[in-house]
Amino acid sequence: MRPVLVRLHRWFGVAIALFLFVAGSTGAVIAWDHELDGLLNPSFFHARTDGPTLSSLELARRIEAADPRLRVTYLPLAVEPGHTLQVMVWPRTDPKTQQPYTLDFNQIAVDPATGDIQGRREWGAVSLARLNLIPFLYKLHYTLHLPFTGGIDIGTWLMGIVGIVWMFDSVIALVLSFPSAKAWRKSFAFRVARGGYPLTFDLHRSGGVWIWGLLLMMAVTSVSMNLSNEIVRPIVSLLSPLTPTPFSDPKLAGTPQPGKPDLTREQVLEAAGKIAADKHIDAPPGAIFYAPMLHTYGVGFFAAGKDHGDGPLGNAWIYLNAETGLPTGATIPGKGTAGDIFMQAQFPLHSGRIAGLAGRIAVSALGVAVAILSVTGLMIWLKKLEARRRQTRGLPQKSRDTAPADVEEQATARAKRTERRERVASPQ
To answer: Which residue ranges are recorded for the region named Disordered (predicted)?
Structure first.
């Protein structure tokens, strides 16, 4: 059985190593995405004008009036002192062509005191320009910037499948890391003094053992992030019922009716406020968004600057039909079935925000560790590949410290020999 697991680990690891290197290295950076984005682009994040600010609803009206081609789809309802109001926009339909207007941006930074636009950018654009760098890395992390093909989000599916393979490979790696109960200590050791290949091997094996639980958690949550509706929710629902939302159940999504206008943002906020009171949500309304494809509004409840889900299980959201204002679902942290709470925990776990600042530091360090494990795994594979080629050609092996022999198999053989010697030496 072990030789089969060795081969599976080898080929699973080779198949996903590059993807995990990208995910790990970018994940280490985007754990601090807003802080780094603000440092790189102060003119986009910091308002030019001090003093009293206009309401977010008024600013949204001014943005849409100044450019009828767009609709504000994500609107923070409060702004941190000294910061710009950053809104997301979506192109409206051109009545002449019945096609969406062409926009070269989807995010706008507005001075909340004057309504002046301080910057525009396409969040997630393939660009290494300073203004686009952090959003580029964020989207690279989970989609690799691969395009939609035939209505399928290729990048999201690919990285989700990588997460699934990573889950199975993590279990296999743990089994292989303990070839013998007698030699378990070696699986936690690092041969620093030896250096070279032995240290590379230990960084990969022992390094993975020390943080194995965190690695498995990251693999599981990565699948939840990319393939929630497709894979994770159906599996979780077998164990615990899940409360549907418009994002998980298309039947709850609204359908635009010709001639029937949508509710205004003010009307949506009024309806959401009543629902929030019934559900005993204490936080103030923090943002409102409109999902065009679902004809649904969402209202989040949090304080200014807390829109990234800094609570242990994220923020509360209420979803409403854009035409009728009737509730179509809600996500309330800590409320619902066991399955609901499990799903609520996925992003906070993946981002580390479930444990506050310490959690984000841990996730950033874990991203670096994933990148190192990917590199050392490839180095070990290349060494063993070289050894097999030399053996095939009948060439002598290199010195012991740098020989690419299968250290894992050697350790197993040594452990078995030790056990046999102990059995022979032990009294009957």
So the answer is: 391-428
The C-alpha atoms of residue 311 and residue 179 are separated, in whole angstroms, by: 41
Q: What is the DSSP string of 269-297?
A: HHHHHHHHHHTT--SPEEEEEEETTTTEE
Supply the pTM of this predicted model: 0.88
- CA 227, distance to chain mean position in Å, is 11
198 and 325 together in one domain? no
Give residues with Cβ within 8 angstroms of 62, minimum separation 6.
115
- Is 319 inside any structural domain? yes
Q: 116-138: string of b/e by CB count within 10 Å (b at 16+)?
A: eebbebbebbeeeeebbbbbbbb
What is the full per-residue pLDDT of the chain (428 aa) written as tens digits? 888 999 999 999 999 999 999 999 999 999 999 999 999 999 999 999 998 999 999 999 999 999 999 999 999 999 999 999 999 999 999 999 989 999 999 999 999 999 999 999 999 999 999 999 999 999 999 999 999 998 899 999 999 999 999 999 999 999 999 988 787 888 898 998 888 888 999 999 999 999 999 999 999 999 999 999 999 999 999 999 999 999 999 899 988 777 677 899 999 999 999 999 999 999 999 999 999 999 999 999 999 888 887 778 999 999 999 999 999 999 999 999 999 999 999 999 999 999 999 999 999 999 999 999 999 999 999 998 888 888 887 766 555 444 444 445 555 555 555 555 545 444 44
- The answer to whether residues 157 and 19 belong to one domain is yes
φ and ψ at residue 195, rounded to 5 degrees? 65, -165
Q: Are 286 and 302 in contact (CB under 8 A)?
A: yes
Judge if 150 and 125 occupy the same domain. Answer: no
The CA R_g of the chain, rounded to the nearest whole Å, is: 27
Asked if 68 and 82 touch (Cβ cutoff 8 Å), the reply is no
Distance CA 98, CA 92 (A): 10
Alpha helices in 81-153 (DSSP H): 133-143
| 409 domain residue, yes or no | no
Residue corresponding to tokens 């190593």: 17
| Tokens 């600057």 -> residue | 305
Sheet of strand 316-321, all strands in order from the earlier edge strand to the far edge = 117-121, 107-110, 85-91, 70-76, 285-291, 296-301, 316-321, 327-331
Contacts of 227 (CB under 8 A, 6+ apart): 156, 157, 160, 163
